[in-house]
Every structure is written in C-alpha cells, then in structure tokens.
Amino acid sequence: MIEMKVAGIAIDAVSRNPIVLLRDTLERRALPIWIGEAEARAINGAIEGRPLERPMTHDLMLNFLDAWGITVERVVVHALKNSTFYAVVTVSQGDIKKDMDARPSDAIAIAVRAKCPIWVMEEVILEASIPVDQDADEAERRAFREFLAKLTPEELVKKSGLESN
Question: Which InterPro entries has this protein been placed in (predicted)?
C-alpha cells in the first residue's frame, strides 16, 4: 500500500465533474478520482477548515463515532473495477477493528476530518495513477539501467543469496 494525501479538488475540463486528486507522499504519482459535487464541497471544506454552523453528514458520522469511543484508523482505496473505485474505512474501538465499505469520496471526506492516513493499494496505483514527476521517474529508470549494465552474473547470484557452497 502507498500512503497518499489529498492534493486538492479539480474540475474535469470535459465533463465539468469534480475530481479529488490524491498524491503520494514522495509526490511522484497522482490518483484522480471522479466524485460528486456534494462530496467535493465536503472534502474541500474540510481541507480549508471552514467552520460550519451545522454539522454536515461526514461531521455527523464522526460525532456518532466519537460519542461511542470509536476511532477512524485509516482509509484504504483497495480496488478499481469497471472504472469504479472501492474503499474501506477502518474503525476501532479498543482491541476491535472493523473495515467498513465506503465510496472513496465519502471515505476521503471522513479521513480529512479525522486526520487519518489514506492508503491506496499498489494495483490501483499501477492501473489508474498519473505521473507527477516524470523527470524523477526517468532518472530512476536510467539509474536502474546503469546498475543492471554493470552487474555481472556472478554478482547477481551473490546478491540474491542463491550461491551454493
């Protein structure tokens, strides 16, 4: 899993639908997730820390959890099927942990409010992310190619631990 942060909310230039943009902590990959307008407002409001006169749905959810001594541990975006992202919110009460199925937009809105980490499975990153720092990616590929070019078969066997005595 890769930890990600909310980089912000954007608007799709073609469809005019909001997108929440997650970015890895190294700022190498970004994951765009198309969301609804209400969820975009909820996430953006939490990022900006705007005080509200009345609690919104995600605030109400956290108030319920807090009243019962339940902590939001993390959010995990774990799958992408037929262009739909899937997520869970992990909550705990004492020694008991439970993963709750959630839409990623709701899970992210809760995570921002609860100040808990957002994780994304590597398979989802590989399938749906976009590069943010292509120069760093290319430098990493170049360094790896140089490493392989200098590596002899004997060194490879030695480094792999497959040497026979």
Answer: BFN_sf (IPR036104), Bi_nuclease_dom (IPR003729)
Spatial contact of 52 and 59, defined as CB atoms under 8 Å apart: yes
| Nearest by Cα to 6 from 115, 125, 126 | 115
Tokens 């009243």 found at: 67
Distance CA(102)–CA(114), nearest Å, equals 15
For residue 22, the enclosing domain spans 2-132
Residue 21 structure tokens: 């943009």
Amino acid identity for residue 39 in this structure: E
SS3 annotation, 58-73: HHHHHHHHHHCCCEEE
Q: Sign (positive/negative) of CA torsion 57, 63, 68, 72?
A: positive
* CA distance linking residue 33 with residue 6, whole number of Å: 11
* Neighbouring C-beta atoms of residue 163, cutoff 10 Å: 9
* 108/146 same-domain check: no
We report the CATH number of the domain holding residue 75 as: 3.10.690.10
pTM above 0.70, yes or no: yes
In the three-class reduction of DSSP (H, G, I as helix; E, B as strand; rest coil), residue 43 is classed as: helix
Question: Residue 103: which pLDDT band, with cuts at 50, 70 and 90?
Answer: very high
